[in-house]
Design a protein that fits this description.
There is one protein chain. Helix content is 62%, strand content 15%. By secondary structure, the protein is an alpha+beta fold. It folds into two domains: 21-61 and 115-280 and 325-443, Outer membrane efflux proteins (OEP) (Up-down Bundle), CATH 1.20.1600; 93-113 and 285-322, no CATH class. The strands form three sheets. A four-stranded antiparallel beta sheet has the order 2-5-7-8, with no helix packed on it.
């Protein structure tokens, strides 16, 4: 029985540990690109574009169809004709034409010989595939950006939690010292109460930060497409500050956002050409072969002896359609398409300015954050020294409890400021990499 319980507990332990996943930034990004719905849908659009090309290509291929019919005529039409044609001039003959039953079957073919809209559609379809391929790349970059920013945010929240835990341990030590002094009559009760209040405040703040950590981790898992119940561990070495090379402004013509708009402009041009194709004549070939059966009985399976006769017939033709006047409807559509092109061109100009702005802002933020990090690192070092000296002075009776608490608060604030500075730097770093069109480098 004990062995069964032991095996059961071990299996539980293994299943729990199996849910813990160590995530580097590269791991998180690759996981998101494989599992996030946005990334999957973008790839499905690329796949769907192939089917769109096949659909347009089908318009240039022969269209073949088969048909069949069976008709029963309860009352046949009567026609009145001149009897002169039947050797009875001056009389009128009422003749019934047709048969009670008529059955037919045939096959028809239509082939476009010249249709400008088909040729334009084929070129547009290939551009559509390229559009979705660029859109897929843009979607991947957006997934990378969101995951990277949330990844760093989780780190900051965890660092804040670690700082509070460390501060709580240090404050507990001070409380033990003050309690010992109070028990020996060397400290006042108000001093002990102040320490207890501070510990309670730290515990409350820790619970709030713990909640923020959970929320931030859940957000990260959502942006990754990872099950929320999965436990994650983020290695510390992922957050070293390594100054990003501040190169010259990148060529915005290589940015995915710009390329997507240019491809969209190309599609709008094809759309305009497709409308203009309505000015052109169209020429098509048609061919058909049919088999017709008629008689007083159902033609199916009947013979001439039953009064049912079958005959075949065929036709081949050319159909020419020449548009002459459409009430200026086509012209209006062409002008609308031209307005759409010009409107998109304005968006392209605005996007170029926006991309240049993104680079300049990211570069400025990187430079400022590097200075801030150095300042906060020095502040953190000085605050640590002050806290250490104040603690020694307090133990020797040369500093008050107020001085010690102030020094602890200053040290904690300096560490939090440094952590926030690192986060701001990392976010700016992602923005700079994005502005240079190099977000994919984060997964290499």
């Amino acid at each position: 029985m004990k062995k069964i319980i032991l095996i059961f507990l071990c299996s539980i332990g293994l299943s729990v540990s199996a849910q813990v996943k160590t995530l580097t930034l590269k791991d998180a990004l690759n996981y998101a690109l494989q599992n996030k719905a946005d990334a999957k849908k973008a790839k499905l659009q690329v796949e769907n574009s192939e089917y769109q090309i096949q659909e347009v290509r089908s318009r240039a291929l022969p269209q073949i169809s088969a048909n069949g019919n069976l008709t029963y005529n309860p009352i046949l039409q009567t026609s009145v004709i001149d009897g002169a044609g039947f050797g009875a001039p001056g009389t009128t003959i009422q003749a019934v034409f047709g048969q009670k039953w008529t059955s037919g079957a045939g096959i028809s073919l239509t082939q476009a010989l010249f249709d400008q809209s088909v040729f334009t559609g084929l070129r547009a379809a290939k551009s559509t595939r390229e559009f979705y391929q660029i859109n897929d790349q843009l979607t991947e970059e957006q997934v990378i950006e969101r995951v990277a920013n949330n990844y760093y945010s989780v780190y900051v929240q965890r660092e804040r939690l670690a700082l509070l835990d460390s501060n709580y341990i240090n404050t507990t030590k001070v409380r033990d010292i003050v309690k010992g002094q109070f028990d020996n009559g060397l400290a006042k009760k108000i001093d002990l109460d102040r320490i207890i209040v501070k510990m309670s405040n730290i515990s409350t703040e820790r619970q709030q930060i713990l909640n923020q950590v959970q929320l931030q981790e859940n957000a990260l898992k959502f942006y990754m497409g990872m099950p929320i119940e999965t436990e994650i561990v983020i290695p510390q070495e992922q957050f070293e500050v390594t100054p990003e090379a501040l190169t010259e402004a990148p060529n915005t013509a290589n940015r995915t956002e710009y390329l997507l708009l240019k491809k969209q402009e190309e599609l709008l041009v094809y759309q305009k050409k497709s409308i203009e194709a309505q000015y052109y004549p169209t020429l098509s070939l048609t061919a058909g072969y049919n088999y017709l059966g008629q008689g007083p009985e159902v033609p199916l399976f009947a013979k001439p002896s039953d009064g049912v006769y079958w005959s075949d017939y065929s036709a081949i033709g050319l159909n020419l359609h020449v548009p002459i006047f459409t009430g200026f409807g086509t012209r209006a559509k062409v002008r609308q398409a031209d307005v759409e092109i010009r409107s998109l061109q304005e968006d392209i100009k605005d996007t170029q300015l926006s991309l240049d702005l993104d680079y300049r802002n990211a570069k400025t933020q990187i430079e400022n954050n590097l200075v801030t990090i150095e300042n906060q690192r020095e502040n953190m070092r000085l605050a640590g020294e002050i806290l250490s000296n104040t603690k020694n002075n307090y133990l020797q009776g040369l500093a008050s409890l107020t001085d010690l608490l102030d020094a602890e608060n200053a040290s904690l604030e300096a560490q939090n400021n440094y952590t926030r500075a690192v986060l701001n730097y990392k976010v700016a770093e992602v923005a700079l990499i994005k502005s240079k069109g190099e977000l994919k480098s984060l997964i290499k």
